[in-house]
Amino acid sequence: MTNYFRVLKYFFSLNSHASWSIDKLQDYQNKKLRLLMDYAFNNVPFYHKHFIDSGIKPSDIRSSRDLHKIPIIRKDDIRKNLDSMVSQNCDVERLKRLSTSGSTGNPLFFYVNQSELEYRKAKHLRANMACGQKPFDHWVTLTSPHHFAESTKLQRLINVYTPRPVSVFNDLSTQISLIEQQKPDVLDGYSSTLYLLAKEIEKSENSKIKPRLIIGGAELIDDSSREQIESIFEAPFYDQYSSVEMERIAWQCQCKQGYHIDSDALVLEFVDKEGEQVSEGECGEVVCTSLFNYAMPFIRYAIGDMGRSSSDSCSCGRPFPLMKVMEGRKDSMILLPDGRVLAPRAFTIAMSSFRLYDMIDQFRIVQQKKDVLEFVIKMKKANLDKAIFERELTIHFAHMLKLDLDRIHIETEFVDDIPLDPSGKLMAVTSRLDHTDNA
Fold first, then answer.
1. How far apart are CA 376 and CA 67, in angstroms?
2. What Rg, from alpha-carbon coordinates, does the chain have?
3. What is the pLDDT of residues 206-251, one digit of tens each?
4. How many independent structural domains does the chain possess?
5. Alpha-carbon torsion 96, 101, 107, 108, what sign?
6. 9-48: per-residue pLDDT in tens?
7. How remote is the C-alpha of 355 from its chain's centroid?
8. What is the domain extent for residue 176?
9. 20 to 30 A from 33, CA-CA: which of 40, 266, 311, 415?
């Protein structure tokens, strides 16, 4: 059972860090990191062996700058060594088993204890409050039924920070009806689902859904889609970057000048293929070290995303370092025949600047082979000359992304509907290639 006194304790502690200096926050992070290194080495068989095999001791890691000495672990490492990654101080039968959404077709299972679950709730709450959420707001979340049990009976009874779930797998008319009944002040969910909902509401002139703010996450959408969501709902849209393993990782505040990294709860690195930190502003693979997972620690864990760090500061005054927009999943990177690697964001930006973009209702870009890109298009109107559209689309992308059409083939398929992924998300850009060699 959730201990709400502990949730509040964690929340007030985390929230107080917003008034710290940058130096105090960095010292706190390094202290937490040293404690984690000692604990993992002495209590977790996998990390004990991992450190010894790597020729390092816990005392070699004094600050986040030393983390590069530890080899990166990936999802397959966890799958192969799950039992030995759990702390010897924990009874697995008493732990909560969580899993990722399996959007890549292969979900990852891991364990947390009760206090870690409560800490995750406090982290989530801090991020939402930074966007302007209030304790008694009516809060509706569009999500997978997999997450429906995350609010307790007591939480629903007292109605404080209580998410009311609506399934993303319901048809849009059912979603709208259920949301209208709740009259949300805060509407959150998968970003692509919020976009589809907004587009459906746009067709109606008397929608009763009038949230004060909107919170999106779980996937990348382009700036144009964010602007459309804000315009249709007449409410600000705030982005949050999270994962099931780490909970909230980085989030926008009301200033929207970047994504505040939860650096008091994790260490976030952006690394190159050798596992070394990339230069500020350069795209790198996201590697996380959780400072609150002790039942099953995550140390230098490659989460599967690409992102950019930032040396900017936010005018809100919070000391948390910023990251720029997430570039997308690593396994959604597009590998071109000329050796270039393009992020999904490059394609969504190119699409939003297409002359006929306003005629598109939905799209999905899939790399089927290294030399084949498939554009799946759902049009707003059926009477369009598809041959002209396809030709202009091909020319536009070849120009914008400098594609050599002698080496890469663009195929266009027009469809009546683009279904959600099994996870309930809608990945706008994805690759079917094996990215193992590019890890």
1. 42
2. 22
3. 788 999 999 998 666 777 788 889 999 999 999 998 888 999 999 9
4. 3
5. negative
6. 999 999 999 999 999 999 999 999 999 999 999 999 999 9
7. 30
8. 132-235
9. 311
